[in-house]
Amino acid sequence: AQSVAQPEDQVNVAEGNPLTVKCTYSVSGNPYLFWYVQYPNRGLQFLLKYITGDNLVKGSYGFEAEFNKSQTSFHLKKPSALVSDSALYFCAVTHPDSWGKLQFGAGTQVVVTP
Amino acid sequence: DSGVTQTPKHLITATGQRVTLRCSPRSGDLSVYWYQQSLDQGLQFLIQYYNGEERAKGNILERFSAQQFPDLHSELNLSSLELGDSALYFCASSVAKGQRGYTFGSGTRLTVV
User: Fold this and answer.
1) Are B100 and A32 a contacting pair at CB < 8 A?
2) How far is B107 from chain A (nearest CA, A)?
3) Phi/psi of residue B79, each to 5°?
4) Mind listing the pLDDT tens digit for each residue in A34-93?
5) CA neighbours within 13 Å on the CB side: how many for B100?
6) pLDDT digits 0-9 by tens, B65-74
7) C-alpha distance from residue B5 to each of A75, A101, B104 (Å)
8) Given an 8 Å threshold on Cβ–Cβ distance, is A99 in contact with B102?
């Protein structure tokens, strides 16, 4: 079975400060990991993914994430947050042999204040 | 525009009724996925179709059914609706198995009154 934990319901950060959204996962074998963002009344937008290779993955809108196998984590980061980054962020995991069913975390609401 | 089209965007219906949600995948994508997003359950995988065949099934109720047609569009049928079925229903599509991620539509917001 695969699972994802996002330990923080909400992250508050001031504009210009670094932003980190935490994610830990559990899956047998090598995971495929994803981050999606959801703006109000919108669908989920893909940010980045880790399949294999470099543990530091760069994605859209200046976001990046670091895959840490020993800690089974895939934290999302942005060096300098913008007010427009305020949204709901989801981490997801799947297994390479699966038929693509993504297991999503509960989501973390990011609030960036001016 | 993600390329995945869902209709209708909003749907209000009464308990006990039946509704059909429609999804057109991104051009070239063969797989379609359905997810339900509710406040208490979060994002739940319902079902996946690949080129017309069911490939994976999640927490889909027996009152719900889906299919993918030869033109690759998909429909999710929800029957005997209950208040608890009120949610945002997302469709997503991918080229093949989808382990490398997929593209979501903007969703259908279903309200059961």
Assistant:
1) yes
2) 6
3) -125, 165
4) 999 999 878 899 999 998 888 999 999 999 999 999 999 999 999 999 999 999 999 999
5) 6
6) 999 999 999 9
7) 31, 20, 9
8) no
